[in-house]
Write a structure and sequence with these properties.
Blueprint: E1 2-11, E2 16-24, E3 27-32, E4 41-44, E5 49-52, E6 54-59, E7 64-65, E8 68-69, H1 74-83, E9 86-94, H2 101-111, E10 118-124, H3 130-141, E11 146-150, H4 160-173, E12 176-180, H5 184-196, H6 204-208, H7 211-227, E13 232-237, H8 240-251, E14 256-261, H9 262-266, H10 276-279, H11 292-302, E15 308-310, H12 318-321, H13 341-350, H14 357-371, E16 389-399, E17 418-427
Parallel strand pairs: 1-4, 1-5, 6-9, 9-10, 10-11, 11-12, 12-13, 13-14, 14-15
Antiparallel strand pairs: 1-2, 2-3, 5-16, 7-8, 16-17
Helix pairs in contact: 3-4, 7-8
The protein binds N-(aminocarbonyl)-beta-alanine (URP) and zinc ion (2 copies).
The site of one zinc ion (ZN) has 4 residues, from loops.
C-alpha cells in the first residue's frame, strides 16, 4: 500500500516545511517539495499540519488497583490512543512481590496481545533481590529500556539502598531509571491523622500529599541518580517544587529528564470541592494542584526543563470510584487522557501561544521516542522512519465531549473544552 500526502505543513523535531510525503509499506519512502508520483491513495493536505504519531510515555491499561482495574483494556485503550493521534504507548508492567521480571513482562505482553498500536513497556521493580537485579539485563535484551521505581506506596516503594542497586545495574546495561516521586512515609502519616479526624471526603486526598512532599522526593531521587551517575527520569511532575528540583539537577549537568501530564496543565484542585461523584473523578497521585502551578509547568515545558508531556492514562468509571465512598483512601487512583492529550496540547498549547508547534512535537512525539530508545523509527517523519503520522486541520473548532471518544470510561475529565484544530487522520503502522 502506498499513500501520497501532498502539500501539508510537515512539522517534526527537525523540519517545518510545506512538502509532499510518500508512505509505502508502513515506512516513509520520500519527502520532497513536490513528488510527481502515483500512489494507491492521495491526500490533498493543503492547509493541514502533518506531524509524527504521538508517543504517550505513561499509560496504565488494565492496571490492577484497589480490587479493580483501570477500565481501558489494551485493545480499546489503544483504539482510543490512535483516534487521538497517539500511535505508540509505553505502559507499565508492575512486578508483584516474589515475581520474576520475566513473568511480569510476560503477563503484560499477554494482556496487550490485542493492542491496536505500538505498545512498549517500562518494568516497575518492587522487589529488589539478587534475581531481580540479575534479570534486568535479560529484560533489557527483551526490549525494555527503562525500569520504574516508587518512592510512594507501601509495599511497592524501594529504600535508598534498593534504589542504588537498581541504578547500578541500569548504568551497567544502559537502561534508564524512572520514579514516582512522593515521600510515601510522610503521606502515610498524614493519612493516618486525617482518618483519625474522620476527614474522609475526596477533597482531603490532595491535602495529605502536598507539593512539598513531591518536591522533596524528586530532589531525593535525583540526588541518588547523581551519586550513581544513572540517567534518571521523573514521571508525572505536578508542581513547581518538583520542576525546581529537576531544573537544579539539569543545571548541574546531571543526565535527567522530567515528564508532566495533561491533567496538571488543564485541571486544578478546585475540582475536589464538588460532591463525591464529581470530586472522586479527579483522584490521582500526585493530585491536582492549585492553578499557580499550571503556568509554571507551561513555562518549564517551553524552556526545556520538562521534556515530555504524557497522560498517566489510568481511567476508572463513576461506578468504580464508588469503592471510595467510605474514604478517599479507597478511591482507585488515576485519570484518563490518552485520546485527549494530542489535541488538547495543540489547541491549548500551540494555538494559545504557550508553546511553539515544534515544541509540541518534541514533548509529545520525538522526546519520548528518543528518551525511551524508539527514535527515529517513532517520534519523527524522515525517509526510512516508521510512517506513524497525524494530520491536523487547524481551522476546525469543536467542543470535546465524552460521546465522541473511544475509551471505555463513562466520562472525560475534559468535557466541554473548546478545541481549535481537529485530527482528521491518524495512522499507526506498527
Ligand atoms: O494516580 C495515579 N497516578 N495512578 C496511576 C498509577 C501511578 O502512580 O502512576
Ligand atoms: Zn505514579
Ligand atoms: Zn502512572
Amino acid at each position: 500500500m502506498s499513500l501520497l500526502i501532498k502539500q501539508a505543513r510537515l512539522v517534526t523535531d527537525v523540519r517545518d516545511e510545506i512538502c509532499d510525503i510518500l508512505i509505502q509499506d508502513g515506512k516513509v519512502k520520500s519527502i520532497a517539495s513536490s513528488l510527481d508520483l502515483q500512489a494507491d491513495e492521495v491526500i490533498n493536505a493543503k492547509g493541514m499540519i502533518l506531524i509524527p504519531g504521538g508517543v504517550d510515555a505513561h499509560t496504565h491499561m488494565e492496571l490492577p488497583m484497589m480490587g479493580t482495574q483501570s477500565c481501558d483494556n489494551f485493545e480499546q485503550g489503544t483504539i482510543a490512543a490512535v483516534a487521538g493521534g497517539t500511535t505508540t504507548i509505553i505502559d507499565f508492567a508492575n512486578q508483584a512481590k516474589g515475581e520474576s521480571l520475566h513473568t511480569t513482562l510476560d503477563k503484560w505482553l499477554k494482556k496487550s496481545k490485542n493492542k491496536k498500536c505500538e505498545t512498549r513497556f517500562h518494568v516497575s521493580i518492587t522487589d529488589v533481590n539478587e534475581r531481580t537485579i540479575h534479570e534486568m539485563k535479560e529484560i533489557y535484551d527483551r526490549g525494555v529500556r527503562s525500569f520504574k521505581t516508587f518512592l510512594a506506596y507501601k509495599g511497592m516503594r524501594l529504600n535508598d539502598d534498593e534504589l542504588r542497586s537498581v541504578m547500578k545495574e541500569a548504568v551497567s546495561i544502559g537502561a534508564l531509571v524512572t520514579a514516582h516521586c512522593e515521600m510515601g512515609e510522610q503521606i502515610e502519616r498524614n493519612v493516618e491523622q486525617y482518618l483519625k479526624e474522620e476527614k474522609i471526603a475526596p477533597k482531603y486526598h490532595p491535602q495529605t500529599r502536598p507539593p512539598v512532599i513531591e518536591g522533596e522526593a524528586t530532589e531525593h531521587f535525583l540526588k541518588i541518580g547523581k551519586e550513581m551517575s544513572c540517567p534518571s527520569y521523573v514521571v508525572h511532575m505536578s508542581c513547581k517544587e518538583s520542576v525546581d528540583a529537576l531544573r537544579k539537577a539539569k543545571s548541574s549537568g546531571q543526565k535527567c529528564f522530567g515528564e508532566t501530564c495533561i491533567q496538571y496543565l488543564f485541571l486544578d484542585d478546585s475540582l475536589y470541592e464538588q460532591e463525591f461523584e464529581q470530586a472522586s473523578r479527579y483522584i490521582l497521585s500526585p493530585p491536582l494542584r492549585d492553578r499557580s502551578h499550571q503556568a509554571y509547568l507551561w513555562e518549564a515545558i517551553s524552556d526545556g526543563t520538562v521534556d515530555v508531556v504524557a497522560t498517566d492514562h489510568c481511567p476508572f468509571t463513576t461506578k468504580q470510584r464508588e469503592l471510595g465512598r467510605s474514604s478517599f483512601t479507597h478511591i482507585p487512583n488515576g485519570l484518563g487522557g490518552v485520546e485527549e492529550r494530542m489535541i488538547l496540547m495543540y489547541s491549548e498549547g500551540v494555538r494559545k501561544g504557550r508553546i511553539s508547534l515544534k515544541r509540541f512535537v518534541e514533548v509529545c512525539c520525538s522526546n519520548p521516542a528518543k528518551i525511551f530508545g524508539l527514535y527515529p523509527q517513532k517520534g519523527t517523519l524522515e525517509e526510512g522512519s516508521g510512517a506513524d503520522f497525524v494530520l491536523i486541520d487547524p481551522m476546525i473548532k469543536w467542543r470535546l465531549s465524552n460521546n465522541q471518544l473511544h475509551h471505555q470510561c463513562d466520562y472525560t475529565c475534559y468535557e466541554g473544552h473548546e478545541i481549535q484544530g481537529k485530527i482528521v487522520k491518524s495512522s499507526s503502522s506498527f
